[in-house]
């Protein structure tokens, strides 16, 4: 029984990895088309340079290449460690062509516009073939005479509904092939970009330091904001209640001699106020580091959040181990803020939270089917998520077009 369940869980995890990889491969087809356009443009400019009229256009073409390569850097950074690009190319065409960063981009544009595009198209065609064969019995009669017969790879003739139904078997094969090869195709597609688009070793240190300085400042800001928030909630909530308790106890003391009956009533109010103060103190403590993370796993802690969310929420977690406590706390607060936003602003009917661990990075994705239009600049919650993620050297991405859906993706180095 447990062996079967483990196998089922393995299959589910593989399916999720395949869907994720396919999503990434489709994005790769988009940048592949951009890369192909850039390559053709570069080829035209190079030809024009040979006849002498292309030289003024060359810097513009290289700038266009940088824009396309930056798009790919952002795409690759969504799943894996962030790719920090090289600094601006040196002025002058000759110096720019000798620059390792520009050379890397030229190499990448050749690979990605051919191999990258091809792997993406092959990967997309596998699940499409599965859908085609699965639905074959529904539409095979619409095919021109003669064509339907080939649908079974000449293994049998498709002439009636039974033989058409048998074609569905191929869908199983296509699905199995998809599960088997799509994650590999995704790695193959990203490989040239990862190798060629990162800044050359040593050269990127200055950029890296600048990036870390900025994120450290953001981390300190986030920390100060957090302290202010805790101070405010202690001041406005707990402290006020305790002031009320002391005032009530003082009133009760005065009343004891004069009117013992009313003293009892005042003490009862004091007790109520003390209990409220305690409840608020507990709530504040919970927002500092949720105790549930201490006792149980991140997935359990998030299931607790999902259960408390007024919008139906599903949590899927594919986490073989635990991450550093601060990373888990960041993931927890991200989901807590995202679910609060879904409940308050989105008008969604469903929300899903997915957690996975890839190459030592914890990926958290929250998707709701609401009306979209989330704007980081309109409040402090989403900016807080970004700051917390960047303080961990992680990334935060949000897509929320008008009409929805809204997706938040946070990727954090696991740190364990
Ligand atoms: N899931 C969502 N769906 C639709 N709109 C959202 C969503 N999340 C946030 N928003 C919009 O983005 C704004 C900024 O969100 P946030 O930074 O969390 O601030 P706050 O929640 O304090 O208003 C919100 O005011 C809301 O209009
Ligand atoms: Mg909010």
From TrEMBL:
<dbReference type="GO" id="GO:0016301">
    <property type="term" value="F:kinase activity"/>
</dbReference>
<keyword id="KW-0902">Two-component regulatory system</keyword>
<keyword id="KW-0812">Transmembrane</keyword>
<dbReference type="InterPro" id="IPR003594">
    <property type="entry name" value="HATPase_dom"/>
</dbReference>
<keyword id="KW-0597">Phosphoprotein</keyword>
<dbReference type="Pfam" id="PF07730">
    <property type="entry name" value="HisKA_3"/>
</dbReference>
<keyword id="KW-0808">Transferase</keyword>
<dbReference type="InterPro" id="IPR011712">
    <property type="entry name" value="Sig_transdc_His_kin_sub3_dim/P"/>
</dbReference>
<dbReference type="InterPro" id="IPR050482">
    <property type="entry name" value="Sensor_HK_TwoCompSys"/>
</dbReference>
<feature type="transmembrane region" description="Helical">
    <location>
        <begin position="33"/>
        <end position="55"/>
    </location>
</feature>
<keyword id="KW-1133">Transmembrane helix</keyword>
<dbReference type="InterPro" id="IPR025828">
    <property type="entry name" value="Put_sensor_dom"/>
</dbReference>
<feature type="transmembrane region" description="Helical">
    <location>
        <begin position="106"/>
        <end position="130"/>
    </location>
</feature>
<dbReference type="Pfam" id="PF02518">
    <property type="entry name" value="HATPase_c"/>
</dbReference>
<dbReference type="Pfam" id="PF13796">
    <property type="entry name" value="Sensor"/>
</dbReference>
<dbReference type="InterPro" id="IPR036890">
    <property type="entry name" value="HATPase_C_sf"/>
</dbReference>
<protein>
    <recommendedName>
        <fullName>histidine kinase</fullName>
        <ecNumber>2.7.13.3</ecNumber>
    </recommendedName>
</protein>
<keyword id="KW-0067">ATP-binding</keyword>
<keyword id="KW-0472">Membrane</keyword>
<feature type="domain" description="Histidine kinase/HSP90-like ATPase">
    <location>
        <begin position="326"/>
        <end position="416"/>
    </location>
</feature>
<keyword id="KW-0418">Kinase</keyword>
<keyword id="KW-0547">Nucleotide-binding</keyword>
<feature type="transmembrane region" description="Helical">
    <location>
        <begin position="164"/>
        <end position="185"/>
    </location>
</feature>
């Amino acid at each position: 029984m447990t062996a079967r369940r483990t196998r089922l869980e393995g299959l589910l995890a593989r399916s999720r990895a395949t869907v994720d990889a396919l999503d990434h491969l489709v994005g790769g087809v988009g940048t592949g088309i951009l890369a192909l356009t850039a390559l053709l443009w570069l080829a035209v400019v190079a030809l024009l340079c040979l006849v002498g009229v292309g030289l003024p256009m060359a810097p513009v073409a290289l700038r266009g290449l940088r824009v396309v390569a930056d798009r790919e850097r952002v795409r690759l950074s969504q799943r894996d460690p962030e790719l920090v690009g090289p600094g601006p190319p040196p002025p002058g065409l000759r110096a720019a062509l000798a620059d390792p960063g520009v050379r890397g981009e030229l190499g990448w544009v050749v690979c990605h516009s051919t191999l990258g595009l091809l792997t993406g198209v092959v990967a997309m065609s596998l699940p499409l073939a599965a859908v085609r064969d699965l639905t074959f019995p529904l539409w095979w009669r619409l095919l021109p005479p003669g064509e339907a017969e080939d649908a079974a790879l000449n293994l049998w003739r498709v002439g009636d509904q039974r033989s058409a139904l048998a074609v569905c078997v191929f869908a199983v094969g296509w699905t199995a092939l998809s599960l088997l090869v799509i994650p590999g195709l995704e790695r193959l597609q990203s490989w040239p970009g990862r190798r060629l688009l990162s800044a050359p070793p040593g050269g990127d240190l200055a950029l890296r330091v600048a990036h870390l300085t900025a994120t450290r400042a953001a981390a300190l800001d986030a920390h100060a904001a957090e302290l202010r928030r805790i101070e405010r909630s202690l001041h406005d909530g707990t402290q006020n209640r305790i002031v009320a308790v002391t005032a009530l106890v003082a009133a009760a003391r005065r009343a004891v001699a004069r009117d013992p009956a009313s003293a009892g009533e005042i003490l009862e109010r004091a007790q109520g106020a003390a209990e409220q103060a305690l409840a608020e103190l507990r709530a504040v403590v919970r927002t500092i580091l949720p105790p549930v993370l201490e006792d149980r796993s991140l997935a359990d802690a998030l299931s607790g959040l999902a259960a408390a969310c007024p919008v139906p929420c599903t949590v899927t977690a594919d986490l073989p181990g635990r991450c550093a406590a601060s990373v888990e706390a960041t993931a927890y607060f991200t989901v807590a803020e995202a679910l609060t936003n879904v409940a308050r602003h989105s008008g969604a009917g469903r929300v899903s939270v997915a957690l996975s661990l890839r190459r030592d990075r914890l990926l958290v994705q929250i998707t709701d089917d609401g009306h979209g239009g989330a704007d980081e600049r309109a409040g402090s919650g989403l900016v807080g998520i970004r700051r917390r993620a960047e303080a961990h050297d992680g990334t935060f991405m949000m897509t929320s077009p008008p009409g929805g859906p809204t997706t938040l993706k946070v990727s954090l180095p696991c740190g364990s």
